[in-house]
Amino acid sequence: MNFSFESFVDGSFDYDKATQTHSCLWLREEKMDIGGGTISIEDIDKLKDYPDTDVVTISGLHQDTFEYFIKTYGMQFKAICFFKNKLVEDWSLLGTLSNLEYIHFFANQRISSLWDMSRNTALSGLCIEDFTKLDSVEGIGTAPALREFRIGNAVWSKMILKSLLPLANTNIEKFMFCGKSITENDYSFLADMPNLKQFDFPTNMLTTEQVAWIVANFPNLEGYALKAKVDFAATSDHAAEVLIVGKRKPMLTVENNEKRIEKYIQNFETLKKNYVGVPYKMAFPD
Fold first, then answer.
1. d(CA 271, CA 265)
2. Strand partners, 227
3. Residue 261 to residue 247: CA distance in whole angstroms
4. pLDDT score recorded for residue 16
5. Could you give the CA distance from residue 20 to residue 28 in angstroms, rounded to a whole number?
6. What span, in angstroms and rounded, lies between the C-alpha atoms of 8 and 38?
7. Please, how many CA atoms are within 13 Å of residue 63, restricted to the half-sphere of its CB?
8. Residues near 73 by beta carbon (within 8 Å), at least 6 away in sequence
9. DSSP count for the chain of H helices, then E strands
10. Predicted pLDDT at 179
11. Average pLDDT over the chain, rounded to whole?
């Protein structure tokens, strides 16, 4: 079994191509509706039959059943996927799970801040998707072992975070934001993330100038949008295309746009040369 944080989040670690099913235990209401349903204590207690299971997906928790699940069975797991537990209000009990390595939390309507992760000494991967009230990553620095952090949306890109500055001085190696935007337009924190290897964000979230500054000053940093353009190969339905990276930049068909595309590339290279060694706040004073 290829069990990594990425395979846990995308579900590939336990997927059987032959049967097209997942083998991971999924606790939920028997006739769960599209919103996640409402799980009962009896449904949760099915875990008594799986004492050696250390990975689980659970749906339909409310605050009382969330607390019961964590207090009764939480220490059993190294990875938990909270899938559609929209009405959980307080997830601070997660901070008691010292054995937990991965958490994937999808869809919540009430949680508005992170929990104290100082006792989550094994937590190395955290993914938070489609939270309607969460707008801050303040407190992420309390996670002593966190290496991979994803936050944003899995369905519609609506999340707006206040700032990414709280990421400074953390040991995070891979960070992904897949929401709408970041209110505080300050990416100087990257200089204080020496372990960061991968930074992913929407191709139209930053200006071309900001992307060029990042590439110029952190040349070893990888990322889908850390380049002048993203190429899309031709298919039976579409001609080859190029997406120019940057806010309000176009998608262009390659044919008949070669010179225009080359101009964008050369402009990006020029920006990179001009930004090398320039502090972020000097390059973008406003």
1. 10
2. none
3. 16
4. 86
5. 20
6. 24
7. 6
8. 44, 47
9. 6, 15
10. 97
11. 96
